[in-house]
Amino acid sequence: MSEWVHVAHLEELTRGRKKVVTVGSEEIALFLVGDRVYALHNVCLHKQRSLAKGTVFNGRVVCPGHQWAFDLETGWEEEKEECQPTYEVKVEGDSVHVIPQRRVLTEAPAVRD
Amino acid sequence: MPHTVVTIGAGQAAAVAARTLRRRGHDGPIVLVGDEKYRPYQRPPLSKEYLSGEQEPEDGFLLDEQWCADHDIELRLGVRAARLDTTQQCVELEDGSRIPGDGILIATGSRARRLPGVEGDRIVYLRDLDDAARLRGYLQPGSRVVLVGAGFIGSEVASTARSAGADVTMLEQLDVPLEPVLGREMGEVCARLHRDHEVDLRTGEVVESVTETPDGVTVRTRRGTVVDGDVIVIGIGTVPNIEVAERSGIAVDDHGVLVDEYCRTNIDGVFAAGDITSHWHPLFGRRLRVEHFDNANKQSMAAAKNMLGRTTVFDDPHWFWSDQYDLSLQYAGHAERWDEVVVRGSVEALDFVAFYLDAGVVRAAFSVERGAEMYLAKELIAAQARADPAKLRDEDIDLAALVS
Ligand SMILES: Cc1cc2nc3c(=O)[nH]c(=O)nc-3n(C[C@H](O)[C@H](O)[C@H](O)COP(=O)(O)OP(=O)(O)OC[C@H]3O[C@@H](n4cnc5c(N)ncnc54)[C@H](O)[C@@H]3O)c2cc1C
Ligand code: FES
Fold this sequence. Notes:
The structure holds two protein chains of two kinds. Chain A is built from one helix and eleven strands; from the N terminus they run βαββββββββββ. By secondary structure, chain A is mainly beta. Chain A has a single domain (5-103), classed as Rieske [2Fe-2S] iron-sulphur domain (Rieske Iron-sulfur Protein), CATH 2.102.10. Chain A is globular, with a radius of gyration of 13 Å. Chain A is 4% helix and 48% strand. In chain A, the strands form three sheets. Chain A has a six-stranded antiparallel β-sheet with strand order 1-11-10-4-3-2. Chain A has a three-stranded antiparallel β-sheet with strand order 5-6-7, with no helix packed on it. Chain B has three domains: 5-111 and 238-307, FAD/NAD(P)-binding domain (3-Layer(bba) Sandwich); 114-234, FAD/NAD(P)-binding domain; 326-403, Enolase-like, domain 1, CATH 3.30.390. Chain B contains eleven helices and 27 strands. In chain B, the strands form seven sheets. Chain B has a five-stranded parallel β-sheet. In chain B, strands 9-16-10-11-12 form a five-stranded parallel β-sheet, covered by helices on one side. A five-stranded antiparallel β-sheet of chain B has the order 23-24-27-26-25, sandwiched between helices. Chain A binds chain B through residues 49, 53-55, 57, 62-67, 69, 79, 81, 108, 111, and chain B through 19, 23-24, 294, 297-298, 301, 319, 321, 328, 330, 370-376, 379, 400. The structure holds flavin-adenine dinucleotide (FAD) and FE2/S2 (inorganic) cluster (FES). Flavin-adenine dinucleotide binds next to α1, β2, α8 and β23 of chain B. Chain B: Pfam families: Pyr_redox_2, Reductase_C. Chain B: This is 3-phenylpropionate/trans-cinnamate dioxygenase ferredoxin reductase subunit.
């Protein structure tokens, strides 16, 4: 079940820097930042807006709905102390793969200022 | 560093402060004193998801019981604080008890402004859960809702009432809703949203009297308009709850409790956050009182950190949202005057950001369905950026490129 699934070619991300893919029933938003790809559940945990329509800034993706800002790596929202599900990603050559299984932190990563 | 922290008020700001204090390692007692009978809860759903019935009170509660137990947070609910004895370092409650505390957060928020003498079962000033529960009972297909005030809360109630199938009449004293905040053009956009959804919006109408009978309410205006309804909702602004501060020798002005950019009042160890503060804002170079959720969160976080000796300036550019008719409206910054409003996107299509420029500097922004760009607008405002209007307008230029 928890296997790598090919979801996109890197070049599909280079223009818009983001893309929504669907694996089974999972709607996954991919973000290309520098040369890294991040994958978060596309449906915002707050009120279901699409994260792919948000902005990526300073290592976080900001939801267009109410400006919740999720860490790209962990999905953690520092102020609200809630976690948007993320997925493990790897890029092999031109091929982007994810494991379509949600990862959710239940408590805050170490405090940053 | 304080041993015991007491918050006066147990709303948004108090709850977030309590959470921040624990998270930042404060291990002394924390007591929240609140005059409502409910645990701290979020108010934004009261005009939206709770009012429409999509959400129940529990969904809006801020500190769950287990978390409070695990983190040793004491909630003293249903009791008012009378004053703060700043020499004895304790909070006196109206029931006569005293709670010692060497770190105090005044977080009493604000209350709805009322029309003198206008009170009754069918007359609602929407501020707390009980108000919202009462109003919710009136929202049904075909019921008649009269709104006084086309500000943000009135507008949200209009939207929720329309989706419940109620008939809505809105009386606004200005010629254009929200004109002082948004300007004429954007105020017209807000008016259009209501009219597009078959709200009977009447501007330039000043309420003269409201009478309630067993089966309805009647509103008369100065111009002679008469409107009958099943319920009337009055949303004409708020008044800060400054009484506790006043009685305790804490400096206030008409707008609220005076604090500096570190959320400190004039008394050592006494801080304030949220709707109650008239805060010095370094970015805008003046005092401001704002009544928004994000301010309550960020300012109380800053207050908590300052209480613990981690010096933190509160200079967030201010931001709020208002969800109406399935559209996301957002506003950031602060501008009382501007010489240019630059629109990026399409007003016609309700998909745009409007930037308010004063002498070339971006001071505020208002958006409809552009939450993503709003984040960058906040950055521009915080940086007091001088932005070229042509570039702001040009959708081929990524706003991020304008944020240095
Ligand atoms: C209907 C509604 C909709 C809103 N929608 C939005 C929105 O969409 N977006 C947005 O940004 N903001 C919105 N707001 C504003 C937001 O909810 C407030 O800015 C926020 O609640 C402020 O938090 P606070 O802690 O300062 O005050 P509050 O949450 O009001 O908490 C203060 C508490 O202190 C209590 N208190 C006062 N005096 C005493 C005393 N002497 N002793 C004990 N307790 C006392 C009060 O009863 C209250 O419970 C909305 C507000 C309302 C009413
Ligand atoms: S829907 Fe994402 S922040 Fe509200």
